[in-house]
Design brief:
The protein has 3 helices and no strands. The chain is mainly α.
Length: about 70
């Protein structure tokens, strides 16, 4: 036996997630589908460069109003 051996611990959150996945085997596929819908998008590089070029440079201290 290894002196650094620790009993196999699973947090309550991990146990809860495992229970959810066992109750609904399609849960992971649904998560991936939702992620694809919201996050995994192809980036149009030319549009992105135009967006960056059109940005106005921010002042060093944004809350300062024009001095009189």
């Amino acid at each position: 036996m290894n002196i650094f051996y620790r009993p196999k611990y699973k947090s309550e959150a991990s146990q809860f997630i495992d229970q959810l996945k066992s109750k609904d085997p399609a849960l992971e596929a649904k998560q991936r589908q939702g992620r694809d819908l919201l996050w995994d998008k192809d980036v149009n590089r030319s549009d992105w460069s135009e967006y960056r070029a059109a940005q106005v440079e921010q002042k060093s201290y944004v809350y300062q109003t024009a001095s009189k």
